[in-house]
Amino acid sequence: MMRLALLNIFRRKMRNGITAFGIAVAMGMLYTLLAFDRGYQQGLTTELDRLGAHVLVVPKGCPYDAASIALHGASWPCYLKDAYLKEVAANEGVATAAPILMNATWDEKSESQVVYCGITAELLKLRRHWKAAEGGVLPSAGLLIAGSDIAKTNGWKLGQTVSLPGIDKQTLKIGGILAPTSSPDDSFIHIQMSDAQRIFKRPNALTHILVQLKDPNKVDDVVNELRGCDAGLEMTVVPLAHLFTTIRGLIQATRVLLGCITITAMLAAAAGVANTILMAVAERTREIGILRAIGTSKASVVGQLVLEAILLCTSGAVLGVITAMLTGPLAETRLRTILPYAPTDPLLGAQPEIAFVCCLLGPVIGAIAGMLPALRAAALQPSIALKEVM
Amino acid sequence: MSTIVTANAVSRHYKRGTEDVRALDSVSFTLESGEFVAVVGASGSGKSTLLHLLGSMDKPTGGTLTIAGNDVATLTDAQATKLRRDVIGFVFQDFGLLPTLTVAENVALPLGIQHASSKDVRDLIERVGLSHRVHHRPEQLSGGEMQRTAIARALVRKPRLLLADEPTGNLDSASGDRIVALLQDVNKSLGVTLVIVTHNPALAALAERQLVLVDGHLVDNS
User: Fold this and answer.
1) Per-residue pLDDT tens for A57-72?
2) Residues A218 and A92 in one domain
3) A290 in reach of chain B (CB within 8 A)
4) From the candidates A3, A288, A290, A389, which should be mutated to test the interface with B, based on the most B CB atoms within 10 A?
5) 3-state class of A49 per DSSP?
6) Structural domain for B90, as ranges
7) Which end of chain B is more exposed for a tag (fewer CB within 10 A), N or C?
8) How much of chain B exceeds pLDDT 70, in percent?
9) Which residue of A has its CA nearest to B50?
10) Where is the domain boundary, A249, A282, A298?
């Protein structure tokens, strides 16, 4: 039966190829949509975990921009006064308030952006996953702690005194090199807060404060208290979990639209399969009559035609999923340009479980789409079917 | 000899629009095992209708038709299918071979094409003289070879009743003669009841008996 089904499919290569292509497009879209949904969710969760903070305190402005800059590194357009840190830290619900002064410079030599973070020991309470590949993890005066990638790029060694990339006439000694963290920290240069304020000529300034709460369930209470404090008018207090939920909400409309398009594509592809099998039945009516005349049962006729539809859809689904997996990085590049916020981790990485489900869905669609024409073929009276010209 | 087919006042009427068509009207006859019978008549005389009834592909609207002890009118679709599979073999004018399958696979089709290399199939192919064409497809065969393939397919389940609809209609005379000889051989050596529907008087004359149909009526049964 399998061989006969395959031979019948290859009888009409062009038509069946186009039908399988339709399924491939629909399944590729479905895989991409589901993989993106999962990748985006995982990316946001991972970013939140890496940050180790529950609340982000930033200068007045757009919280999404601020979150993106804080997470991925860039120059900030405005600053907080470091006096605000005391007010934030003084809140009873706050376990840790880690101040950061972030600045990005352009390094002509490597033709790339270099991100500096002025930090204090408080940040280590949020970065418990940091491990030193060499030296220490906390910068002290005159020392820098390099992320693994930037150290590798510049060939830095522990104890070496280096010119700071993108900054004229400033040198610091390498006090430590971090083990890889698979986060933007790998490309950051961490220096002591006072060094950062001096080098970037921002005395008493911070770019943001990462806040860890004693009880994350009380985030709303703490956020309201911080917004109500004296410095509250000068800063934006962003609960990160809420922010990420909001970010997910921002792309919800896009997801729904893509979902609708995918469902439409799947319905159209299924209709295409049904139509292809109907055409095959119309063309092979006499053949079906002959099969019935030589004793082939109705069930076998149905099974034969449904198998053809299943094979068509399975091949289309596998082709579509493989193509979607291979072209995922290209689609991701485009997606990142249109998303309001994109996590650092891959959004369209390979998702074997989703690929498996999509490949399984192919034969299911084939069985459903092929059933109607197959039943119609089986219902043909042999004596009538035999009157068709072959 | 035993009776394999009994037709008692068999009719097949149907509606075509408002017209009542009597394709077959009160036809009675019997067929004995191992007989060679020709069904003759002009176009529209009811030959094809009779063949479909004998093949249990259609049901009479009147009378009683019994094939190998089965009342065709009362058979379910599954029972009729089983009867066709186990008792009846068909040979069509246009051969009715599946173009994607080889000779061996076409012959094995009633058994399942996975049996294409079985001994029974090979023996039948040899019997019809196509051993050198086993792996050829229908498009690579002559008309005579295609019909021999169709005959082998009809015989593969060892039927008791072989129905042939104009088996030489699409063949040149030389090929037609060889097919007739083959059918006669099958009839004699295997004891299969052979019913041939034909327009060809010469072919009909070879039969032991002729059923002559005129406008749905059996006018001669001798």
Assistant:
1) 988 877 777 777 877 7
2) yes
3) yes
4) A290
5) helix
6) 33-58+80-221
7) C
8) 100
9) A383
10) A249
User: A321-355, pLDDT tens digit by residue?
Assistant: 999 999 988 988 888 887 777 787 888 888 899 99
Q: Between chains, do A294 and B109 touch, taking CB under 8 Å as contact? A: yes
Question: Do A313 and A294 share a structural domain?
Answer: yes
Q: Helix H segments across chain A?
A: 2-11, 13-51, 63-72, 83-90, 122-126, 148-154, 193-199, 219-228, 240-250, 252-283, 285-293, 298-338, 352-378, 382-385
- For residues A147 and A219, state if they share a domain: yes
Name the residue among A58, A41, A33, A10 with its Cα closest to residue A261. A33
The verdict on A284 touching B (C-beta cutoff 8 Å) is no
Q: What percent of chain A has pLDDT over 90?
A: 49
Whether residues A290 and B90 touch (CB distance < 8 A) is answered with yes
CB contact under 8 A, B81 and A7: no
B4 found inside a domain: no
Return the CATH number at B49. Answer: 3.40.50.300
Reported as half-sphere exposure (CB side, CA atoms, 13 A), residue B189 has a value of 8
Nearest to A8 among B52, B100, B154 (CB): B100
Residues of B in contact with A302 (CB under 8 A): none
CB A150 within 8 Å of CB A115: no
Contacts of A296 in chain B (CB under 8 A): 81, 85, 110
- Count of domains in chain B? 1
Å from A295 to nearest chain B CA? Answer: 4
What residues have CB less than 8 Å from A352, skipping those under 6 apart? none
Q: Is the whole-model pTM more than 0.80?
A: no
A390 falls in which pLDDT band (50, 70, 90)? very low
Residue A390 within a domain: no
Residues A317 and A351 in one domain: yes
Which residue range forms the structural domain that includes residue A94? 52-249
Asked if A31 and A165 sit in the same domain, the reply is: no
Give the one of B85, B100, B157 whose C-beta lies nearest to A11's C-beta.
Answer: B100
**ipTM, 2 dp:** 0.88
Q: pLDDT tens digits, residue range B186-197?
A: 899 989 999 999
Is B57 in contact with A7 (Cβ distance < 8 A)?
no
- Measured CA to CA, the distance from residue A372 to residue B158 in angstroms comes to 35
Residue among A4, A294, A390 minimizing CB distance to B153: A294
pLDDT at residue number A249: 79
B106-146, pLDDT tens digit by residue? 999 999 888 888 998 999 899 888 999 999 999 999 998 99
pLDDT of residue A389: 52
Residue B1: the pLDDT is: 66
Contacts 24+ apart (CB under 8 A), A371-374: A371/A302, A371/A306, A372/A274, A373/A274, A373/A277, A373/A278, A373/A280, A373/A281, A373/A305, A374/A277, A374/A281, A374/A301, A374/A302, A374/A303, A374/A304, A374/A305, A374/A306, A374/A309
Question: What pLDDT does residue B50 have?
Answer: 93
Residue B57 to residue A295, Cβ atoms within 8 A: no
Question: Per-residue pLDDT averaged across A62-87, rounded?
Answer: 82
In a domain, residue B63? The reply is: no
Q: Assess whether A214 and A261 both reside in one domain.
A: no
